Amino acid sequence: MTFFVQSHSGPHPRLTSTVIGMSTSAHLPAEPDRTVTDRLVEANHHYAAGFSDPGMDARPVLRVAVVACMDARLDLHDALGLSLGDCHTIRNAGGVVTDDVIRSLTISQRALGTRSVVLIHHTGCGLETLTEEFRHELEMEVGQRPAWAVEAFRDVDQDVRQSMRRILTSPFLPHTDDVRGFVFDVKSGLLREIDPAG
Asked: Most-buried pick from 74, 148, 163, 187 (CB within 10 A)?
């Protein structure tokens, strides 16, 4: 996991990254002549050796799109009992409904037949530790301010509600009858549903 912190040494503040190692089932000792991507490509060769075409098309079987945070602790298929081909999965930092998420959901609904939307934020999200100042720090470092918003938040429940509202009010999404939001507890693995009315 990488966190960006502002360095206070020297005359010009800079963002530096601190990598915190976490042990996972895929954790292997470092190999100096191989990158992580090399290991992933090798794993793909093993996967492809036993792969057979499932004969599906691009339309999700359950006609649902799941919008979730990119956090590596969320194994959405296992957590929701999903199989290959069941859903569209749209992930970004925070699971926030941005313009690009609306773009993906619009294609998902209008071109590929989904009818339901499930939003999943989670406890201990990295966006709770950031502010929009992050954009200004980036501008100081690289000389250009990002065009995107950080979408940081302090109250995960309220951010789920905001994401639901963005979907419910989008003119591009024809199917908003089944939009539900949840917070995934990274310690227990349980989903907690959020009342859109608060």
From this structure: 163
pTM over 0.90: no
Report whether 65 contacts 108 (CB < 8 A). yes
- Residue 3: what pLDDT? 41
Q: Is the dihedral of CA 4, 29, 122, 91 positive or negative?
A: positive
Measured at the CA of 23, the angle between CA 186 and CA 84, to 5 degrees, comes to 60
The Cα 168–Cα 116 span in angstroms is 12
What residues have CB less than 8 Å from 162, skipping those under 6 apart?
A: 97
User: Which sign does the torsion angle of CA 19, 128, 103, 77 carry?
Assistant: positive
* The token pair that represents 8 in the structure block: 């206070």
Task: Show the low-confidence residues of the chain (pLDDT under 50).
Answer: 1-23
Query: Where do we find the tokens 């959901």?
Result: 105
Q: Among residues 75, 80, 100, which one has the least CA distance to residue 90?
A: 100
Identity of residue 119 = L
